[in-house]
Amino acid sequence: MNLHKTIPVQVKSIHQETPCVKRFTLVHKHNDPLPYFSGGSHITTYVELDGQTIARSYSLTNPPGQTAAYQIAIRLNESSQGGSLYWHEWMKVGDTLQVGFPQNHFPLSFKAKHHVFYAAGIGITPFMSMMAELKEEGRTFELHYAVKSRETCPFYSFLTETYPEQTHFYFSKENRLTDASLWEHRVGTHVYFCGPPSFIEEFTRSALEIGYPSSSIHYERFTPSQTLTRRRFEVELTSGQTVSVPEEETLLEALLKSGIKAPYSCRAGRCGTCELKVLEGKVDHGDSLLSEEERNGHRSILSCVSRAQSGKIRIQL
Amino acid sequence: MKKIKPAFVHSKRMYLFCGDQKGMERLTPIIKKVMKENVSFEVVFLGEKEETDISMWMRNQKMGTFLYMAMEWSKLGNFKNVAVECGFSEEEAQFIGHGVRMIDVFCCKCHQKTKIDSGKLGNLPTTCSHCHLKLSVSDHYSPLRGSYLGYANLETGE
User: Fold this and answer.
1) Distance CA A53, CA A261 (A)
2) Reduced to 3 states, what is the DSSP secondary structure of residue A93?
3) What is the CA radius of gyration of chain A?
4) Under an 8 Å CB criterion, which residues of B touch A?
5) What residues in B contact A210, CB-CB < 8 Å?
6) Residue-wise pLDDT tens digits, A135-176
7) Do A210 and B64 touch (CB under 8 A)?
8) pLDDT reported for residue B156
9) Mind listing the pLDDT tens digit for each residue in B8-41?
10) Each residue of B76-96: b (16+ CB within 10 Å) or e?
């Protein structure tokens, strides 16, 4: 576990947002103020389950500048491997846990003249703090929010009351969110996508096809891209050790399982904490961090998502 | 100072061309290419419209457009500022100047600017028009100062 800098927190309250989404308010265990965060930040939470530590990252949904508490909203994932299931089934008011310091891999662009957020489902979470920051600063924005229905829409009442002019809901049975509005944004607009990988990929592709410069497109994945072919491969370390990475595991998981202290944080290929130097072999990149040039150089691998193109690679570790 | 050639940028929904007579001549190959590819475009001749109209025209453009602006250097800076203010980023516009280009040199001593003809850059040093210090002009352009940095010219006395 990567527990270098953590903060002990206590669950102060739990609010059932929708049948599948719970919102948790966390305060410092000793009532100290929590570190400041900016719009779009997230924290990694560490919960203990059956002797294992489960690390999961969640966006902070309260307005930046509020240091008395952190709020996170978690959707119960049907195929949960313990993270959301634990939070939904076991976490109670008064429980304590460790959380990482806030990090922001999804900051607001300071160059944008206008910000447009596209959210699908629980993808709304990073935009909650971003919109609060923009409103506070008097900058313009709009939200396009796709969700199954009004009843399953997290933060529905809050959004209609706080941002009535800026929010556009798309309930799938009534009117689906399409990429049509991407054609309408004026020059100087920056767009932000958050939701399932297919949603992010579709909207990013559309924006690029329209002619948006890539620097005006921002997105955040909480799950890695699913486009890689998962093949078994071997990784040789500079220590001499060889680790086998089976189809169903990531390189990071295989390294940790072998007792190797590999660094990591987001586990979704966007923060770069797990980046390792590649000495030999080609990499099948699955991250959203490295540049085209860095990818083509095959000198670097993000162990949480990327794999070997060939049967074996050698890395510096 | 080398002459900047306009380059065609692919995959945009719309291309905008704005410039004076000579500027448009420089943009002609790109306009022809856009016409050949059958992509939407608009042309605005400088002088046909007031600056405020051009500002309004640029402000109302949609994402996915690419702007080419070609005019005399003396006017380009101002129009570039308007385009940037309207939201055009470096990735969404090309600015091409012609004629005499005056550049600012930032004095390392008094922090004032002196205008020089960029064509004379190789024949320097120059003298700061404010504190009269002899300056050698570096090729380091400071976006913060909007100037090339001028350093004290160290003469060897030979």
Assistant:
1) 14
2) coil
3) 20
4) 11-14, 58-66, 86-89, 91-92
5) 13, 63-64
6) 999 999 999 999 999 999 999 999 999 999 999 999 998 899
7) yes
8) 52
9) 999 999 999 999 999 999 999 999 999 999 999 9
10) beebbebbbebbbbeebbbbb
In angstroms and rounded to an integer, the radius of gyration of the C-alpha atoms of chain B is 19
What are the tokens at A231?
């093949």
User: Dihedral of CA B54/B55/B56/B58: which sign?
Assistant: positive
Query: Which residue do the tokens 């909650």 mark?
Result: A128
ipTM over 0.90: no
For the cut 60, the answer to whether the pLDDT of residue A249 exceeds it is: yes
Count CB atoms within 10 A of the CB of residue B142: 12
Average pLDDT over residues A3-22: 91
Question: B12: which chain A residues are within 8 Å (Cβ-Cβ)?
Answer: 211
Tokens of A215: 């620097």
Instruction: With CA atoms as reference, report the closest residue to A231 among A293, A313, A300.
Output: A313
Spell out which residues of chain A touch residue B61, defining contact as CB-CB under 8 Å: 186-187
Question: What residue type is B73 in one-letter code?
Answer: W
The nearest alpha carbon in chain A to B65 belongs to A211
Identify the sign of the CA torsion A228, A234, A236, A241: positive
